Amino acid sequence: MSPDTTQLSEPPAGSSSIAPSSSGAVSPTHPNGRKTDKLTPRGEDHSPFWQNAHLYFDRVYQTMGLDEKWRAYLSAPKRVLTVSCPVRMDDGRIQVFTGFRAQHNNARGPFKGGIRYDASVDRDEVMALAMLQTWKNAMVDLPYGGAKGGVVCEPKKLSLGEKERLTRRYTSEIMPIIGPVQDIPAPDLGTDGQVMAWLLDTYSMMVGHQELGVVTGKPVSVGGSVGREEATGRGVMNVLRKFLKTKNKTLQDVKVAIQGFGNVGSHTARLLAERGATVIAISDKFGGWFDETGLDVEAAITFYRETGQLTDWNTDADRITNDEVLTSECDVLIPAAMENTVDAQHAPHIKAPVIVEAANGPTTPMADDILRANGVTILPDILANAGGVTVSYFEWVQGLQNFFWDKKRVEDELQKIMEKSFDEVNAKADASDVDYRTAAYTIAVGRVAEAVRLKGLFP
Ligand code: NAD
After folding, report:
1. 29 to each of 33, 115, 124, how far by Cα in Å?
2. What is the widest separation between alpha-carbon atoms in the chain?
3. Helices of type H across 175-282
4. Atom of ligand 1 nearest to the CA of 187
5. Which of 94, 262, 379, 392 has the largest CB neighbor count within 10 A?
């Protein structure tokens, strides 16, 4: 089961070590402390998540027969910027937050990728997510390279004013490397349309004119696209529906469990429930709810939007833990929270025959091995959650042209891209007799490798 040259082992007990302060800032020197399968480093000092992302790439690169001399270039980020963001807090103190922007590869077009506000953000995390974004953008054939940014903070502990001042300062710090034809940020974990509106305004004030193309995921009233907010969830729904069709099933035939109830998890739950799927389990960071006859998803969304949590939701459903969500009796499991939430400890107990990765990097390579051995089908992140960046691409195009589409056009174009991408992955998996992740990576890495080879090396 151990892959290639890398040995896998379980994490030491109690290895989690994030120590957030009450002010919302977190020391960036703390390692990424989430529970995860640990990879014994190959001489590098990188986080398990960084190593997982590279392992998935290395495994596929080896089997693709690509020229070995391009491997290091394809896996290394082009640029990683670390910034300090001093922010005046509401109580008068000046708090310094650490932020990053990693740009992985731009052979196929400008860099593009989200900005994350979370206590777990670190340099390795943004580098790994930027690499994943390169493959994702190539997987759905968008004319973009991959990037990712983040600020080490606890967004829920910041006041609105503190969050705005942090966003404006972070934007000004990464200003030299972003722009509508350079690098286009978007929302991710802990950020939303409001944060993107502040980013737009800060950038526009600094260049002296409104620059809609600098950021996507903006509210519609300031040049965003209709359908962007729900786009990642809609893409998840499109891909799952297309997959089920290959099994002569529909969404009405499946019971679904969803981990994470933020932007991606809640819209996925709603769009699936609206089409007849039975959503039996949902959760947020603090735990979840289970009802085998189906939860009232609309009521859960209303409550979550008002309070930011599910814990105090007034429902007849049974309270369950996050681990129980993962191992619940369902037909489809959708991790939509964070990376590394499905690890080798969960994998043997997962009962769902199908996993749709709505989060980025939720399944560790070791869990992936176990699940594949157990016959579980995984629709991988770089395919399944690409709906968000796809509608971000539509938003960017609309902003550059100042010509805005209606919702039907956005939904139709999204469905076309998601279904075509699924068909490509499905055909590759069939033709090469490989799992969907290997098929998706083979297509995506192949596209980036071809662009890199054709462009050659500068100078
Ligand atoms: P979000 O901040 O809106 O929501 C995250 C949700 O996950 C919250 O409900 C939170 O309570 C929950 N959560 C956090 N840690 C958890 C844990 N350890 N266990 C269970 N639940 C946990 O974030 P989002 O935008 O919905 O992003 C979720 C995932 O999807 C991330 O991996 C992100 O990178 C990925 N993603 C997001 C988008 C997008 O358009 N927002 C696009 C592609 C991929």
Report:
1. 11, 20, 12
2. 66
3. 193-207, 231-246, 263-274
4. 41
5. 392
